[in-house]
Design brief:
By secondary structure, the chain is of the alpha/beta class. It is built from 8 helices and 8 strands, in the order H-H-E-H-E-H-E-E-H-H-E-E-H-E-E-H.
């Protein structure tokens, strides 16, 4: 039964794998989230409430551009990016198989992309403060998700998170990156960002 559910979820996921910008442009009045509203959704969808970060306002347009939702990025223990996609155009559905097979003895494709430290520098915790140092792990899995795109995204975030926890071959530290507009940015920054997004429609 569990296998059938996973296959069904995988099939639905393929239909949802599209750039977040394309979806975002269709929203007239996007919701502004904060720590409380994000944690309400985290609890509702039974996600782990640890290691949730948000994007800094100045980094938001760059992080959002070209990003699919939900999406993931994997880094090794040294913070080097690991490419899990078969090709540049492959969907992020490959994570369903890649996460359970992660192990320290495997050799992975590590293209020259920004490392984990560079990526984490774009984020804060849900209060808008600096992120605490991450717990040491064999691999780090960044999962990009939003509140506003509906339950489908959270279903897949939950599956990826559970797959990481279930992997007995290594320790995987999961960091969930929320890509909603944030109250901590302040009205002026929010206005700049929403106006810029509207111009791109």
């Amino acid at each position: 039964m569990k296998k059938i559910l996973l296959i069904f979820s995988f099939a639905i996921f393929l239909l949802s794998c599209q750039p977040i910008m394309k979806k975002f442009y269709g929203i007239k009045n996007p919701e502004i989230e904060n720590e409380k509203t994000i944690l309400i959704k985290v609890k509702k969808y039974k996600l782990d409430s640890q290691n949730i970060v948000i994007v800094k306002s100045k980094e938001f347009p760059y992080v959002l551009n070209g990003q699919s939702i939900p999406d993931g990025a994997i880094y090794d223990s040294e913070g080097k990016y690991i490419e899990y996609r078969q090709t540049d155009t492959s969907c992020n559905a490959g994570l369903f198989q890649f996460i359970p097979e992660l192990k320290t003895s495997n050799i992975y494709n590590k293209p020259n992309k920004p490392n984990l430290s560079e990526e984490l520098a774009k984020f804060t915790n849900t209060k808008g403060d600096s992120i605490e140092p991450l717990e040491k792990a064999d691999f780090y899995l960044l999962i990009y998700w939003t509140v506003w795109t509906g339950r489908l995204n959270k279903d897949h975030v939950k599956i990826w998170e559970d797959l990481a926890k279930a992997n007995k071959n290594c320790k995987i530290n999961v960091i969930k990156v929320n890509l909603d507009l944030q109250e901590t940015w302040g009205k002026e920054e929010l206005s700049k960002i929403t106006n810029a997004l509207k111009k791109k429609k």
